[in-house]
Every structure is written in structure tokens, then in C-alpha cells.
Write a structure and sequence with these properties.
It contains 9 helices and 11 strands. By secondary structure, the chain is of the alpha/beta class.
Length: 306
């Protein structure tokens, strides 16, 4: 039986030092005081029981003025599994990186949206951000800690997924990479013409997995329904995602695991006939409202090729 871990996702701030074209967050949040205070986090940690892991996110979590104190506070509560999700720009500073690892960070989730400056910065909208993340990934090598990369699929990288995986594998930058489909909210709504359809993205991913099946880098997908991943269902992250995630930002507490299926994801009228219906959340709600459900055909027999 799969054991569900309780994960606490703390959005430390909505401030960010990138200007991502496809950011799914409301940009108005950058103009308000959005930082979680130490007192607020103390209250959160006192209220939430049996926490297995804390993930520090944002915005850009490394911009929190209280980051070190927050990490140390989490450690005093006996929570030893602390992941930092980051665009990694500040992690190019070796001293800063060393300090947060000494404080208690023992896993990283890093955003990397391409294997070239043009590819990555077409997403981030920030000159120099590619060199920063590559410098950070090189810095991280010496610590031998798990690094999971997240790559959001756009028209700028969809034809180069194999090159991205090869680049990551050859440089030994990460233990895994997740190719995520865009959540069409926030700033991303304004860039609708730059999106690729789910079926196109899924076909490129399947082909990439087939041609890179010997890579040591684990390859996953996010927000792409099982029906579009025929033969590669084992690479769908939702297959193994049984964690109970609670999120906090400066405004509210949210049971994200419950919200993902009830609010953020949507299934089609024929999804109930699919073999993967019980474990698939569908796709982001905005997608079928824009493109319909024609791409989603229920799986009635199982075949895994790769």
C-alpha cells in the first residue's frame, strides 16, 4: 500500500528576480507585501502536525529576507527533509549556497527551460538568467544532493527536449527532470499564441523518451493526461504522486491535494471510461475551455513500450 507523506509547501514571497513570460502567478502579487513572516511560520509549524517534508517556494524563495532563520526554525521542529524550489539565480553565490545547505536544505528543485541561453531566456525574459542557473548547477555538484529540474514546455523548447535531456545527463546536473505543461493563468494568459497543444507536446515527449531510454536522468511529465502518454505511462508524475500537500502563502492555507482535482484540474465527459481515471486529474481547467476535449481519448487497453 502506498503511504502518503504530508508535505508543507511554504510560499515565502511572491517577489521574483526573473520576469518569466509564462508565469502562472498573478503579477499584482509582486506589488504587495507578500513575505511570510517568522511569526506566521512559527504559527504554521505549531498548527500543522506530522509533517514529513517542507518545500520552500515562491515567487522566488531565495529573496526572502528571513530565509536562513526559516530553515533553521524548520529544523528545530524536527523536520529534516527540506527542499528549496528556485530559479537558482542566487545559488550562483557559493557562500550563499553553502550557508543554506548548512542551515538544513537537503534537496533542490531547479527551473531550467532549455539547454541554451536563447531557449531558457525566451521563457525567463531575463538576460543572464541562463548563465546564472548553469553556474548554480555546477556549484551544486559538489554537495551530492538530489536535484530535480523542472522544464515548462513552450514553442521555444518543444523540438529540443532530447537535447535538453542529453545536456543535463552529460553535465550530471540532476537526478531527474520533469517536463511540465503550462498552467494558463496569471501572466501566461497573455501569451496564449506561444503555446503548443497538449497532443503535440506529448508526442515530442514520447519520442524523446524512446530515443533517450538509456539516460541516467529520470524523465517525468506533469499536467499531461495519461491518455496522451501511451507507452510512456510510467513517466507520468501523477502515477507516483500520492503526497498530501498543504500550501501556505501570506493570505491563506490551502489543501492543495484536494484543490488540484476539485478546482485546478478538469476531466472530459468520456474520462470515466479510461483505465487511468482513478489516478489521473485531467488537465489544467483553462486548457479544455480554450481547446476542448477532442485530444483526450480514453485508454481501454494498456501497453508500455519503453
Amino acid at each position: 500500500m502506498q503511504v502518503s507523506n504530508k508535505i508543507l509547501d511554504l510560499k515565502l514571497t511572491y517577489r521574483c528576480n526573473n520576469n518569466c513570460k509564462y508565469c502562472c502567478q498573478d503579477r499584482k502579487l509582486r506589488a504587495v507585501e507578500s513575505d511570510l513572516t517568522i511569526d506566521k511560520i512559527v504559527n504554521i509549524l505549531d498548527c500543522e502536525k506530522d509533517i514529513d517534508k517542507v518545500v520552500l517556494t515562491g515567487g522566488e524563495a531565495t529573496l526572502s529576507n528571513d530565509l536562513m532563520k526559516i530553515i533553521e526554525l524548520i529544523k528545530t521542529k524536527g523536520i529534516n527533509n527540506i527542499q528549496l524550489q528556485s530559479n537558482a539565480r542566487k545559488l550562483k553565490d557559493k557562500d550563499f549556497l553553502d550557508k543554506i545547505i548548512v542551515a538544513g536544505i537537503n534537496a533542490f528543485g531547479i527551473s531550467l527551460h532549455g539547454c541554451t541561453e536563447t531557449m531558457h531566456e525566451s521563457f525567463t525574459g531575463t538576460i543572464g538568467s541562463f548563465n546564472d542557473v548553469i553556474c548554480a548547477l555546477n556549484n551544486l555538484k559538489k554537495y551530492n544532493l538530489p536535484v530535480a529540474l523542472n522544464c515548462v514546455i513552450t514553442k521555444h523548447n518543444v523540438e529540443f527536449l532530447g537535447e535538453i535531456v542529453r545536456f543535463v545527463g552529460e553535465q550530471k546536473y540532476a537526478t531527474s527532470i520533469q517536463f511540465a505543461f503550462i498552467h494558463i493563468t496569471g501572466k501566461a494568459e497573455a501569451e496564449i499564441d506561444d503555446f503548443v497543444k497538449l497532443s503535440v507536446a506529448a508526442a515530442c515527449i514520447r519520442n524523446m523518451i524512446k530515443t533517450h531510454k538509456d539516460t541516467e536522468v529520470k524523465i517525468y511529465t506533469e499536467a499531461i493526461p495519461f491518455c496522451l502518454m501511451e507507452g510512456c505511462e510510467k513517466n507520468v508524475s501523477e502515477l507516483r504522486n500520492h503526497d498530501h500537500v498543504i500550501t501556505y502563502d501570506f493570505r491563506e492555507r490551502r489543501d492543495f491535494s484536494k484543490s488540484i482535482s476539485e478546482k485546478f484540474k478538469l476531466k472530459g465527459p468520456s474520462c470515466h471510461m479510461c483505465l487511468f481515471n482513478s489516478m489521473c486529474d485531467g488537465t489544467w481547467t483553462e486548457y479544455p475551455r480554450l481547446y476542448g476535449f477532442d485530444e483526450f481519448v480514453p485508454v481501454t487497453s494498456f501497453r508500455s513500450e519503453y
